[in-house]
Amino acid sequence: MQFAIGLFVSLVSSCISVQELSVEEILDNVEGAEVVSLTATVSYTRIDSILERKEIRTGNLLFRKAESKKRQAAILFDTLIIGRRREEKVKHYIFSGRWMAEVDHANKQFIKRELVAPGAEDIDPFELGSGPIPLPIGQTKESVLSKFIVEKIERPADGPLSKLSDNVIGLHLVPKTEDEWEYIDLFYDKTSWLPVGVQTVEDDGTKRVSRLTNMQVNALSEEDASLLNINTPDPKEWSIDIRPWPVE
Q1: Does a structural domain hold residue 53?
Q2: Fewest C-beta atoms under 10 Å: which of 146, 155, 165, 248?
Q3: Is residue 207 situated within a structural domain?
Q4: Per-residue pLDDT, 130
Q5: Has residue 5 been placed in a domain?
Q6: Which one has a higher pLDDT value, 84 or 17?
């Protein structure tokens, strides 16, 4: 009986201590998350406030930190839902520190775009404020606080992120300078300190919501790793379109 009471008190104290964490303490935990690779199921919802159009894509997300410390990511969507219409539609995106590739396996089309100017530093594909996907993994507290006003928020009462577990803690980020985003909401698992939900609202009202489930850390298979390969395929078999950074 005493053991059960002690365990209950311990669990309650743990929950309270996490909820009482300051923004800076939360960001310290996020920065300290040790992740070499990650795979997850992703559900992505885009809501166009002007056209009142909603589309949902589902698939898989992959992340790897190479020995050179370069971060690579890939998203492989396999399903598209618009209204009552559902179709199997594959979209494969790959992000390295310098390039983004769009791969159409069915039609053997490969489009590769340079994201930064020659000589410029590579970017983290998930970094807030610079990467194409606002899904920070291990991003430094300093970089977040230098670009955003940050406060804690509760889990949404409705929408895709209302389905997140109770074991999450949320942050509301507002850019300090003019930006494409009006705000970004991030939700982290309180055990792993990895992002499990992201909601962004752009200046034109467009809302994008991503939810991650079935997350596996440091367990990247060879098959998954191949989906992070951004090398140009054989031009004899594929249609290739390479788009370097535009020269002014």
Answers
A1: yes
A2: 248
A3: yes
A4: 62
A5: no
A6: 84
Instruction: Centre a 10 Å sphere on the Cβ of residue 70 and count the other Cβ atoms it contains.
Output: 14
Q: Which ranges in the chain belong to alpha helices (H)? A: 2-19, 23-31, 141-147, 222-226
pLDDT in tens, 185-240: 999 999 999 999 999 999 889 999 999 999 999 989 999 999 999 999 999 999 99
DSSP letters spanning 153-196: EPPPSSSGGGGS-SSEEEEEEEESS--SEEEEEEEEETTT--EE
User: Are 34 and 21 contacting, i.e. CB atoms less than 8 angstroms apart?
Assistant: no
Work out the mean pLDDT of the chain and round it to a whole number.
Answer: 87
CA torsion, ordered 128, 129, 132, 137, to nearest 10 deg: -10
Residue type, position 55, single letter: E
CATH number at residue 63: 2.50.20.10
Indicate whether 150 belongs to any domain: yes
Distance CA 29, CA 27 (A): 5
Provide the residue type at 6 as one letter: G
